[in-house]
């Protein structure tokens, strides 16, 4: 078991006093068999009324209602977790899912349908061409080998770039540019696998240590595929590795643009000139 501290500071500065609209926060890691939240602190300036809820995906979401007008917004979160997973669990796939393509069990297929729905159907031709050296339609191959090849192809053939802009690039845009952020790579991996008929979801969270290249920072995004017998398993196309004990999931969603750590708006004039500063530190406690 490891104890890990996560400090996440977000600051917005404005050139004038503005009215701050409600802000949605995805900052608390997902409790489970491998992660337990020991303590949490959330300080918001100006003072806000904070309401917590579990959304349809089981994510912990805080809504901050700010009544006071201000020229700044500071959201300071500190969370300590206990992480009980030290090694990657083995893939224990059902016999029928050992080789791809396979069909999901009808009972699972009902719940998995939203996770198989394409977000960028217009990119299908580009995607199929890009993975043609890995997989041809109706070829039989080991499922884990196929996923590993796609994961590593993204990591090895595309260039990582940190992007400050909100949202994600479409898969076609990422392939055209030959570069993207972790959000863009996770989106590309998800859409490739959905075109193949697999159930996928987007993960937003944190990463500890050397699980990804150092320039990426501590906030991170990756993807998960539902594999019969193994459940949801994480793949990190930024590093080309499996998501493991250094990956700390905060929120999951079928759509990659739906779970940013902090989201909200303000009302002001054209002179507000908003500026944002983010500092995230993930550290192992002794």
From TrEMBL:
Q: Transglutaminase-like domain location, by residue?
A: 174-239
Name of the featured protein:
Transglutaminase-like domain-containing protein
Species name = Granulosicoccus antarcticus IMCC3135
User: What is the phylogenetic placement of the source species in the record?
Assistant: Bacteria, Pseudomonadati, Pseudomonadota, Gammaproteobacteria, Chromatiales
